[in-house]
Amino acid sequence: MTLKELRRNAHNRLKEQPNISSPELDADLIIMFVLDLKKDELLTKDISVPDALAIEVNAYLNRRLAGMPVQYIVGKTEFMSLDFIVNKNVLIPRQDTEILVETVIERYKNVSEQIRILDIGSGSGCVGISMARYLPNSVVTELDISEEALKVAVLNAEKNLVTKQMNFVCRDIRDGISDLEPKFDVIVSNPPYIKTDDLLELQQEVIEYEPVAALDGGDDGLDFYRIIIKKAVPKKGGMTAFEVGIGQAGDVADLMFKAGYRNIEIIPDLGGIERVVLGYAA
């Protein structure tokens, strides 16, 4: 079988599943993974594919047809133009979250002194590691309750050449951060914010494969905003920035104001959805 034939067959197989939103892209990612090809090689070469590799591709296509996210199948994804390792222990980074990272970078890119950043609920580390990469004078602490998630973050820090800028803390944020001194200039978080009753309405590939603990934000979706606002405060004048779910920006802004934050901003994503809420500690 030639590469072109393999691609055509793979595209057609995934197109048969209406719940797969990007069948051709997913098929190509699997083929590149199995055959160890770059995108330009996939598009320009028409090599003969050994039967064993074609069988392996089909096995991975079966996993995708069963609902497994392609990012877990190939073990990686892209975020902020950087490559990140992902597995079942961490959420798959979403493009929506890049707004949070870009917002912080924009506000601190001209700061010459060291910037101490705390990333709460770090998961794969995509948020904190991206900030470390694009803010070279930053020192980032990745905090997560999951040891397995932090193992992935450590690998991603190594992969993206920022290990020397990173610290890793395994902790429940409910226990606070009073022992982490000095205080942080920036606290960021993309916390669990899905209402518990809404979890079953998520796509199959999300609810069946991604860690539920990283999704469940309690009855109203705001549990972890309340906890973080109470337990993790930056230094005076420091910034806390959250990613928020659809329709949550006003509530999170109100929680921050009542806790003493000032100069609170709500920032939309490219689609006009209110996606980031930030404020400064008084």
Automatic annotation (TrEMBL):
In Pfam terms, one family for this protein is: PrmC_N
One annotated GO molecular function is: nucleic acid binding
Which EC numbers characterise this protein's activity in its record? 2.1.1.297
UniProt xrefs under InterPro entries: DNA_methylase_N6_adenine_CS (IPR002052), HemK-like (IPR004556), N5-glutamine_MTase (IPR050320), PrmC_N (IPR040758), RF_methyltr_PrmC (IPR019874), SAM-dependent_MTases_sf (IPR029063), Small_mtfrase_dom (IPR007848)
Which processes are annotated in GO (biological process)? methylation
Q: Which residues form the Release factor glutamine methyltransferase N-terminal domain?
A: 5-75
PANTHER family with a match to the protein in the record:
HEMK METHYLTRANSFERASE, MTRF1L RELEASE FACTOR GLUTAMINE METHYLTRANSFERASE
Q: Which family does it belong to?
A: Belongs to the protein N5-glutamine methyltransferase family. PrmC subfamily.
Protein's name in the database: Release factor glutamine methyltransferase
**What organism does the UniProt record list as the source?**
Monoglobus pectinilyticus
